[in-house]
């Protein structure tokens, strides 16, 4: 039995504010609010004067690429604070351009327009405690590129795909979505001890009419102790996306990681123009057990390079992880998402996804299968294998 221990970061968190002063973000050149991401350049572009610019980088705002060994205590971005359940999600905002009052349902949107002057209204730091992220990683893959990736992925699997899916599939229905994550840096100290074996001899002995291979090995007590620096551990902060089950295929999102989070930019709501988004619904306290578990896995993996001599494996009897410092930053990461609901009747079904990393183009997904065709092909393969085996045996005889 492994005795796994860890200590949490003590004390109150140090909060880093990276948001704007209000929800209105204007073009620095002409002051217009018609602003959107230009994927080709990766910059924000004003629709009026065509000026392009970038917000402050996430590294400058939150020291994302700083020396992890200097982390002391709990450091969190303002957007990573606990969500206040008592806050009414339907909020009223006063347009700073014309003075009209505009209602935004922040459960489904983080951005809207004034219906009088078309001024862009943004929640930014106006929603208390973590309703918006600290940083955003903009899309660099265009919709056309994402459509081509999805067409290629599905095309390679169409032979076994369900006929209804093949008839209804249209990659043009892909949507660009910013999904909520936490980016965590960890400064920790790992200490492990256990038993390891090194093989010294291999030999064969006769047991009745048969023979068996046996091994001799030396048993050692082993211990490892080292500082552990984890950079940009990326954890889903949407409870629904983190769930695994047969009702959906959310796990495909994990398969398109990693993201180049070191290139994240300070949060600016204009990056959402033309894209969908999800709000995070979990707090640091909800995610800490997962971060601790993954940190311990990383510690075990980090120790492997020093254990090559023990070729018959290591069993850790004791594991301790002392966390000296952590930095949590709430982030929006870009995903092109194609979804398809497979109706299986009686109100049951499965939601299939094909996801494309909005930065790297890495693609993964699931396609509804045509079970009768899959079964038929499997049966044919098995029959051919049996026939070949019989022919081989006959030839040997």
Describe the structure.
This protein is of the alpha/beta class and 397 residues long. Helix content is 20%, strand content 38%. It contains seven helices and 18 strands. Strands 1, 2, 6, 11, 12, 13, 14, 15, 16, 17 and 18 form an eleven-stranded mixed beta sheet that branches. A three-stranded antiparallel beta sheet has the order 3-4-5, with no helix packed on it. Strands 7-8 form a two-stranded antiparallel sheet. The longest helix has 26 residues, at 371-396. It is flat and about 95 Å long. The model is unreliable at 125-130 and 245-249 (pLDDT under 50).
Number of strands: 18
Secondary structure tally, helices? 7
Structure classification = alpha/beta
Q: What composes the largest sheet?
A: 11 strands, mixed
Give the N-to-C terminal Cα separation: 53 Å
Proportion of β residues? Answer: 35-45%
Mean pLDDT: 82
Order of helices and strands: EEEEEHEEEEEEHHEEHHEEHEEEH
Query: Helix amount, in percent?
Result: 10-25%
């Amino acid at each position: 039995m492994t005795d796994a221990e860890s200590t949490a970061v003590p004390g109150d968190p140090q909060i880093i504010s990276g948001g704007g002063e209000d929800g209105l973000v204007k073009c620095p050149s002409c002051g217009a609010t018609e602003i959107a991401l230009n994927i080709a350049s990766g910059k924000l572009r004003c629709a009026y004067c065509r000026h392009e610019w970038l917000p402050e980088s996430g590294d400058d705002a939150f020291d994302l690429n700083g020396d992890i060994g200097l982390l002391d205590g709990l450091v969190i971005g303002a957007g990573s604070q606990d969500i206040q359940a008592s806050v009414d999600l339907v909020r009223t905002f006063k347009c700073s351009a014309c003075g009209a009052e505009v209602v935004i349902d922040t459960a489904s949107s983080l951005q809207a327009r004034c219906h009088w002057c078309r001024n862009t209204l943004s929640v930014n730091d106006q929603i208390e405690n973590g309703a918006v992220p600290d940083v955003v990683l903009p899309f660099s893959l265009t919709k056309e590129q994402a459509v081509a990736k999805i067409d290629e992925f599905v095309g390679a699997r169409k032979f076994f795909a369900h006929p209804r899916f093949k008839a209804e599939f249209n990659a043009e229905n892909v949507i660009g979505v910013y999904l909520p994550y936490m980016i965590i840096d960890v400064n920790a100290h790992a200490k492990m001890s256990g038993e390891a074996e090194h093989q010294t001899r291999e030999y064969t002995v006769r047991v009745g009419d048969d023979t068996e291979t046996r091994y001799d090995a030396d048993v050692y007590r082993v211990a490892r102790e080292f500082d552990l620096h984890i950079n940009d551990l990326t954890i889903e902060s949407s409870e629904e996306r983190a769930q695994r089950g047969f009702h959906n295929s959310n796990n495909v999102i994990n398969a398109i990681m990693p993201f180049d989070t070191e290139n994240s930019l300070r949060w600016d709501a204009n990056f959402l123009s033309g894209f969908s988004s999800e709000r995070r619904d979990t707090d640091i306290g909800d995610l800490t057990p997962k971060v601790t578990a993954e940190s311990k896995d990383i510690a075990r993996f980090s120790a492997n390079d020093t254990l090559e001599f023990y070729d018959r494996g290591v069993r850790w009897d004791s594991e301790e992880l002392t966390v000296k410092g952590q930095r949590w930053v709430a982030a929006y990461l870009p995903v092109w998402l194609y979804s398809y609901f497979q109706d299986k009747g009686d109100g049951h079904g499965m939601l299939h996804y094909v996801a494309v990393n909005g930065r790297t183009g890495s693609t993964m997904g699931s396609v509804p299968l045509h079970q009768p065709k899959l079964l038929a092909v499997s049966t044919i393969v098995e029959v051919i294998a049996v026939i070949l085996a019989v022919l081989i045996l006959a030839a040997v005889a």
